[in-house]
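User: Can you model how pyridoxal-5'-phosphate sits in this protein?
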Amino acid sequence: MDFLKNVVQAPPDPILGINLAFAADSRSDKLNASVGTYRQNDLQPYIFPSVKEAERVLFSQEKNKEYLPIAGEADYLKATQQLVFGQADLSRICGMQAVGGTGALRLTAEILSHAGLNTLYLGEPTWGNHQNIFTTVGFQIRSFPYFDFHTHRINFAQLCEQISKMQAGSALLLQASCHNPTGCDFSKDEWKEILRLIQRHQLFVVFDLAYQGFGEGLEEDVWPIRLFVQEGVSCAVAVSHSKTFGVYAERVGALFMVCASPTQAEIVLSRIKVIARRAYSNPPCHGARVIKTLLQTKELKALWEKELQEVRQRIASMRQLLVSELSLHLKQDISNFSYLLEQKGMFAFVGISSYQVETLKKKYGIYLTEDGRINLGGVNAQAVQTLVRALAQIPDIQHSTS
Ligand SMILES: Cc1ncc(COP(=O)(O)O)c(C=O)c1O
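Assistant: Here's the modeled complex, given as structure tokens:
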């Protein structure tokens, strides 16, 4: 008997599948400007020297590779907690090491489902995996417009109106900074307004924090999370260290549940541990120990902060170049692209249509994600020029006919 005959072929992952298609493309001048990893100017994968050094220190000191506790490496969690929450009173926050940001979101979905929540509101557009993670656990997904494709910005008034109509007792996922894919973040005043609304309408915010340090700075990028904690609000914070430390493959992340009281934090943690124990038993140690070593060693931490600043600067210079190239080749006033300079983090969201994305790939060997986001951390000056010149050759059929 063929027990597996009813398994249906799954499509390739819309984001990671691009890497496979790119690798299979034999054109020598092909360009991958899609998947969200940071590259140096030579477009080769980048390991932060501070991370490499922390790994070397760890190598000489590590005494065992025995199982970690279910919640993970305690010192790693402590250091990560400080990075995210600063000096806040942490007694009502429980922390759990997670298998990357994705694992943290999955744990979030499971614990919220256990708590009785069953509806999640997601901004449109958002990172493609959000919906999958939460529907797998049984959540109903409702979407709300996040990005206005005409103004290339968040339509904040409309967004607030939508939040006001959300069903009390639901969860709302918000990216803390460097929004993927649009790069559009809320201002401080807007975050304060959102805080007021979620309190009034009794919503539970899930913060997705995947790009700390890639926007304005390590402290600035977690400002909304600290605001919520300071105001006594309960929320979840799903942390990914994949980009922040460039440790994508090590799968380092954490989930922090900001609870109503220290007692509740203990109870919630005990339940998340059960969830983890049944899924993967306990987390991997290597990446977490590397990050712990880095954050606990003053010189390495300072070095990493400097390297992160250089990463930010390189991305900002690519953003500037993109704007000037678009203005030049699309023969438009530079001010028409000012919205791109307001966007934060790795991604630039120009509003490239799916027709253009497809043509860029077929005709020019240039790969973008389906939604047309450009990863400014994965290109250099030559790549930006190549991309914009190709784009200028493709009339935006979708937009011009709609
Ligand atoms: C917004 C967002 N959240 C979460 C993740 C998942 O992070 P990780 O790769 O650590 O699982 C990503 C990864 O690209 C992301 O962009």
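A couple of observations from the model: The mean pLDDT is 95. The first helix runs from residue 16 to 24.
User: Helpful, thanks.
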